[in-house]
């Protein structure tokens, strides 16, 4: 469990106590690198990926959310975000980490089922478990006094 940190960060006119990131979160840097490479190798998304934003119910959305390559591309973007916030010294908040871990869990389970290479599929599942553990470790950080229900900033 993360211990409160004595450093403070300006947040508007108030000071916010920072909490150290849990070890499981800091260890995700290598996990996210490997996940990204596995997804890229098995789904081959383009280096740049775009999606339909013409309307909220754009007909292309149905095709995008059911296409494994598109799901892999969206997932890879979330992996990039988690990679960034897992970095030592990169400030984030517990809710961001927990949200990314939850979103990735769903996507990675789905994508692992589409990977024909059993060893690679199993590796995605194993790396996903590390993402889940980091999310769980982050969710166990107790809020500071008077911070129940507030964002818990991490450093």
Output the keywords.
Four Helix Bundle (Hemerythrin (Met), subunit A), single chain, mainly alpha, two-stranded antiparallel ribbon, 155 residues, two-stranded antiparallel sheet
Give a written overview of the molecule.
The protein is mainly alpha-helical. The chain has a single domain (22-45, 53-140), classed as Up-down Bundle (Four Helix Bundle (Hemerythrin (Met), subunit A)). It contains six helices and four strands; from the N terminus they run E-E-H-H-H-H-E-H-H-E. It has helices at residues 23-26, 28-43, 60-66, 68-85, 94-114, 118-139; strands at 4-11, 14-19, 92-93, 153-154. The strands form two sheets. Strands 1-2 form a two-stranded antiparallel ribbon. A two-stranded antiparallel sheet has the order 3-4. Helix 4 runs antiparallel to helix 5 (94-114). The longest helix is centred in the last third of the chain and has 22 residues, at 118-139. Mean pLDDT is 86; it is low at 1-11.
List the helices and strands and how they pair.
Elements: E1 4-11, E2 14-19, H1 23-26, H2 28-43, H3 60-66, H4 68-85, E3 92-93, H5 94-114, H6 118-139, E4 153-154
Antiparallel strand pairs: 1-2, 3-4
Helix pairs in contact: 2-4, 2-6, 4-5, 5-6
Total of domains:
1
Strand content: 5-15%
Order of helices and strands: EEHHHHEHHE
Task: Provide the CATH top-level class.
Answer: Mainly Alpha
Number of strands: 4
Read across the widest sheet, the strand sequence of neighbours is 1-2
CATH overall fold name: Four Helix Bundle (Hemerythrin (Met), subunit A)
| Strand-pairing-aware structural class | mainly alpha
Low-pLDDT residue spans: 1-11
The shape, in one word, is globular
The helix tally amounts to 6
What is the oligomer described by this structure?
single chain
Q: Rounded to an integer, what's the Rg over CA atoms?
A: 17 Å
Largest sheet report: 2 strands, antiparallel
CATH architecture: Up-down Bundle
Task: Tell me the distance between the termini.
Answer: 14 Å
Average pLDDT taken over every residue: 86
State the share of residues found in helices, binned by percent.
Answer: 55-70%
């Amino acid at each position: 469990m993360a211990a409160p940190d004595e450093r403070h960060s300006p947040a508007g006119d108030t000071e916010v106590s920072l909490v150290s990131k849990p070890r499981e979160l800091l260890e995700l840097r290598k996990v996210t690198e490997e996940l990204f490479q596995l997804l890229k190798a098995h789904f081959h998304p383009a280096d740049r990926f775009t999606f339909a934003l013409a309307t909220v119910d754009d007909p292309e959305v149905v095709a995008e959310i059911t296409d494994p390559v598109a799901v892999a591309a969206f997932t890879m973007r979330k992996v990039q975000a988690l990679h960034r916030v897992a970095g030592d010294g990169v400030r984030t908040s517990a809710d961001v980490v927990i949200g990314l871990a939850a979103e990735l869990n769903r996507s990675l389970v789905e994508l692992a089922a589409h990977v024909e290479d059993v060893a690679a599929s199993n590796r995605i599942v194993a790396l996903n478990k590390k993402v889940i553990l980091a999310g769980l470790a982050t969710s166990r950080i107790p809020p500071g006094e008077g911070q129940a229900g507030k964002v818990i900033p991490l450093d």
